[in-house]
Design a protein that fits this description.
- It is found in: Cytoplasm.
- An eight-stranded parallel barrel has the order 1-2-3-4-5-6-7-8, surrounded by four helices.
- By secondary structure, the protein is an alpha/beta fold.
- The protein has a single domain, classed as TIM Barrel (Alpha-Beta Barrel), CATH 3.20.20.
- Helix 6 packs parallel to helix 7.
- It has ten helices and eight strands.
- It is 37% helix and 16% strand.
- The radius of gyration is 17 Å and the shape is globular.
- The structure holds phosphoenolpyruvate (PEP).
- Phosphoenolpyruvate binds next to strand 8.
């Protein structure tokens, strides 16, 4: 379990310069006992003021370092634009853009090489949970990166996001989430036990101001990855303030 919780906002393809201003302003009064990360669309990164109250992250990067890849953004470019983190392997990328475990691993290597902290998103679909395959799916997603690159764990953040809980209003219960987080930490210990004890494992999936406290009370939940509720500055602030 990590000492300081991390609350990350995934704006997805939402937001505006007005939201950048509202959220930056709101976060000037955030308590220093929590780390806050905002992952807006890449075009908004440069519109955030430099702040000691929050970090910025991208939502995706290319698996290539540079070159003739029209429309893509490299880790280095995003770093230069102000990002210090990047979400990788989000279920929407896996589902809509056919991102495989191998591709996610290549992107994670690029992120770390450039100096970005990767937030590796993993999680099972509803069908996989109903077939009682949650642990198998998660173990495979983790092994795809850390079995071959255990040295990357110490530089990573993990986000457990059950696909059935994302954007559905149906969060995992604190007990369900805790059980899976404990499993994730145990799996990671197979690759690097010291890093596994410290790595931050965030929960994501319909986190809001009403359910966050019970989630944050769980031993292996080190913060949250927040989608929908992160677009509402007041509610996002409440979630951040609940994470002490
Ligand atoms: C997400 O997409 O990472 C997410 C957790 O979304 P939501 O909070 O809206 O479920």
């Amino acid at each position: 379990m990590s000492a300081k919780k991390l609350i990350a906002a995934n704006w997805k393809m939402n937001g505006s310069r007005a939201l950048v201003e509202a959220v930056s302003q709101q976060l000037t009064s955030i308590n220093a006992t929590v780390d806050v990360l905002i992952c807006p669309p890449a075009t908004l990164l440069a519109h955030f003021p430099v702040s000691e109250h929050f970090s910025l992250g991208a939502q995706n990067i290319s698996e290539h370092q540079q070159g003739a890849y029209t429309g893509e953004l490299s880790a280095g470019l995003l770093l230069e634009a102000g990002a210090s983190f990047v979400l990788l392997g989000h279920s929407e990328r896996r589902q809509y853009y056919a991102e495989t475990d191998a591709l996610v691993c290549a992107k994670l290597q690029q992120a770390v090489a450039a100096g970005l902290t990767p937030v590796l998103c993993i999680g099972e679909t509803l069908a996989e949970r109903q077939q009682e395959n949650t642990q198998q799916v998660i173990a495979k997603q983790l092994a795809a990166v850390y079995a071959s690159h255990p040295e990357l764990l110490v530089k990573s953040v993990i986000a457990y996001e059950p696909v059935w809980a994302i954007g559905t209003g149906e969060s995992a219960t604190p007990e369900q989430a805790q059980a899976t987080h404990a499993f994730i930490r145990a799996q990671l210990a197979l690759y690097d036990s010291a890093a596994a004890a410290k790595v931050r494992i965030l929960y994501g999936g319909s986190v809001n101001a009403a359910n966050c406290q019970a989630l944050f009370a769980q031993a292996d939940i080190d913060g949250a990855l927040v989608g929908g509720a992160s677009l509402k500055p007041d509610e996002f602030m409440q979630i951040c303030q609940s994470a002490k």
